[in-house]
Amino acid sequence: MTLRRLRLSGFKSFVDPADLVIERGLTGVVGPNGCGKSNLLEALRWTMGENSVKSLRGAGMDDVIFAGAETRPPRDFAEVAILAEDAAGDEVEIVRRIERGAGSAYRINGRDVRAKDVSLLFADAATGAHSPALVSQNRIGAVIAARPAERRAMLEDAAGISGLHIRRKDAEGKLRATETNLDRLGEMAQEQD
Ligand code: ATP
């Protein structure tokens, strides 16, 4: 998957709609301290499904919404769109929106989807909120200090197979539910005999 654009509105310091075009090759974002460079990377991770408020440097998820400034009132929602190209070269748009006090919603190509669908999309493309391709501040130290199981998870993310674990967990859950239903059916059949 190739990222092409990032559109932000009301996300952290990006109170006005902003559009970051990611050209082929290397894109650099430069600016003075505190101008919002890290917020851009966080917007990317957040849209990919990041739900750890700590790693988004907040106390609650609503902290990603513009909190107001001396001359600007706070916003009630934040929305970020990632425009990407999939392996087949088709455009895909992933949107995450959060309303103050009401939580997040996701869309892929205009269709409402679950957070899990977004995670799976990025996991299959060997990227995502926890992908080793996204290196935020302090992350290098965290990689060095990681336990073997955590390092294995990073390698699985990089290999694009972490989506299989999510699907396996789902399938195991369904299997357990079916077994419970079968047991119940067996009991009912016995009661009828
Ligand atoms: P540095 O170079 O120091 O790492 P940076 O360019 O990466 O800085 P960020 O850390 O991305 O900057 O941005 C920090 C700015 O974002 C701060 O000015 C902070 O007040 C602002 N900010 C963060 N969350 C919000 C919010 N919810 N509402 C308004 N502004 C916010």
Query: Quick one: how many beta strands?
Result: 6
Largest sheet, order of strands side by side?
2-1-3-4-5-6
What pattern of helices and strands is seen along the backbone?
A: EEHEEEEHHHH
Integer-rounded radius of gyration: 21 Å
Largest sheet: 6 strands, antiparallel
**What proportion of the residues form beta strands (DSSP E)?**
15-25%
Uncertain ranges? none
Function: Required for chromosome condensation and partitioning.
Protein name: Chromosome partition protein Smc
Subcellular location: Cytoplasm
Subunit structure: Homodimer.
Keywords:
alpha+beta, six-stranded antiparallel sheet, about 35% helix, Rossmann fold, Chromosome partition protein Smc, binds adenosine-5'-triphosphate, about 190 residues
Structure explained in plain terms:
The protein has 5 helices and 6 strands. A 6-stranded antiparallel sheet has the order 2-1-3-4-5-6. It is globular, with a radius of gyration of 21 Å. The chain has one domain: P-loop containing nucleotide triphosphate hydrolases (Rossmann fold, 3-Layer(aba) Sandwich), CATH 3.40.50. The model has no long low-confidence stretch (mean pLDDT 90). The longest helix has 31 residues. 37% of the residues lie in helices and 20% in strands. The protein is of the alpha+beta class and 193 residues long. Adenosine-5'-triphosphate binds next to helix 1.
Summarize the structure.
By secondary structure, this protein is of the alpha+beta class.
SSE diagram, text form:
Layout: E1 2-9, E2 18-21, H1 37-47, E3 77-85, E4 91-99, E5 103-108, E6 111-113, H2 115-124, H3 139-145, H4 148-159, H5 162-192
Antiparallel strand pairs: 1-2, 1-3, 3-4, 4-5, 5-6
The chain binds adenosine-5'-triphosphate.
Protein name: Chromosome partition protein Smc
Subunit structure: Homodimer.
Function: Required for chromosome condensation and partitioning.
